[in-house]
Amino acid sequence: MRTEGGPGPEIWLRGPVDAETAEPEAVRQQGGLRHAAARRYSWVGTHGGAGVSTLAAVYGGHDCGRDWPGPDAPHSVLLVARTHAAGLAATLRAVEVFRRGEAPAGLDLDAVVLVADAPGRLPRPLVHRVSVIESVIDVYRVPWVHAWRLGEPGTGPPRGTEPLVRLTGAATSR
Q1: How many other C-beta atoms can be found within 10 angstroms of the C-beta atom of residue 57?
Q2: Which of 42, 113, 140, 154 has the most CB atoms around it within 10 Å of its CB?
Q3: With the C-alpha atoms ordered 83, 46, 92, 170, is the resulting torsion angle positive or negative?
Q4: How do residues 75-96 score in pLDDT, each as one tens digit?
């Protein structure tokens, strides 16, 4: 915050940048445009049946089940839960673990992914619980996908999940 009066915007100074560190390895030049490589994630379920394996198959990333990522897994965590009452309560408990600093060292909680537990709209009490979660962390929603219930995740990311596709760098087949 700018505290003294004077013209011009406040800027942050980070010191000199040499040629080797000016551009991270994950960024490459293509036709004059800079493209960042997709970040890898570990999917962690907050409860059984959250959909971690399906999301990892559809969006890519490491399937941790309900365990914390191991040393060889990506340290960027996406918590996964269903949108039923028990799933949302489990999500709040898991987010609180990160808030209190009780998650394993080196893990970063990037977002919560909520997978619809049934087709249709959420009941009002569940909408309220989702809004509580959204007030503390980014939330990505995945709609009900009938084919997934039948064990057929190969159809690619469902419509309406473009923000999650961008986050994970998943390829779309639609």
Answers
A1: 14
A2: 113
A3: negative
A4: 999 999 999 999 999 999 999 9
